[in-house]
Amino acid sequence: MRHDRRHACRHRRSAPRHPQSRHHPPAARGHRHRRPRDILACAAEISPDLATRIDAQLTTIETAAALNATPAGYVHEAIAACQDSGRIPAVISCHSTQAVTACLTAYDVADRIKHVAGATTFPPGHMSPKADLLTDAISALNAAPGECALITASSAGIDAARGAGSLSIGYALTPATRQHLSTAGAGTVIPSLADLTLRLRARPLPN
């Protein structure tokens, strides 16, 4: 959303979002949990073809999981408020564009999202830097970086927004996460998308 992934929003009409995964598989005992990008980096050192196959498998797994995902509370209301207040929502994700689109379709909000910036085919696939995804979303919104705000639940998202010259809104479900995002430099931190919905409707952009 403009002005707000993990969404980026344009101050005037758009906002990208950085989606957040609610469930994280436990690491196997004695092994450190590896992110998809870490697995791909190891595979790429062995063979680009191996990395391409693994990246495709990750997309298949994510897309299947997306169909069973539970949407964050008030996501429909927040997206509607974004549009009604003159902002344009987009979504940024480290997951595959295919999986994110499947998720948005399942939530029945795909037609309300201007752009999805996510992992495409390898390279770089799931190794796409967050900063590049944010830049992609801002460009798709035809916006200036300073007109956009990124809603994110991670410090990496806040760093990406700062590097792009955009605003950042932390999304924290716990006091510990709130403190973490504030320390990382989030412009503001919200505990719920209901809070974002009220703020967007209270501050519509001029036509």
The top-level CATH class is: Alpha Beta
Supply Rg.
Answer: 17 Å
Spans where pLDDT lies below 50 across 5 or more residues: 1-5, 8-14, 19-31
Number of strands: 7
Instruction: Identify the CATH homologous superfamily.
Output: HAD superfamily/HAD-like
Overall form:
globular
Query: Number of helical segments?
Result: 8
Instruction: Tell me the CATH topology.
Output: Rossmann fold
Supply the helix-strand structural class: alpha/beta
Largest pleated sheet: 7 strands, mixed
Number of domains: 1
The ordered H/E elements are EEHHHEHEHEHEHEH
From the coordinates shown, what is the CATH architecture? Answer: 3-Layer(aba) Sandwich
Q: Provide the residue-averaged pLDDT.
A: 84
| Spatial strand sequence of the major β-sheet | 4-3-2-1-5-6-7
Euclidean distance between termini CA atoms: 17 Å
Report helical residue fraction: 40-55%
